[in-house]
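Lecture 7 notes: from sequence to structure.
We start with the chain below.
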Amino acid sequence: MKARLSMAALMAGLMVSSTAWAAITVRYYNRDSREYTWPVVCSGVKTTVSFGKSQTASVTIQGSGPCTVQTDDGNVVLKGGENLDIKNGRIIIN
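Predicted structure tokens for the same chain:
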């Protein structure tokens, strides 16, 4: 009986920790001299993502992919690992 409880506790712990560590990372180059902050939905969870002005960097979005970035120009779906180019307020996946 103890072995079953221990195994159940271990499995529950692994499931919780795997969802807590879920995130996607993308690399971007923002060609605009403006910082952008857009809403993002990952697995039904709403958050925001910011892209700094005139820079190349990486950003990590908490949540499991795919994630949908809601820009003024439309929605962009990210799975993680993409290289993004931001120009004139639009996200282009390279």
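Points to note: The chain has a mean pLDDT of 87. The radius of gyration is 17 Å.
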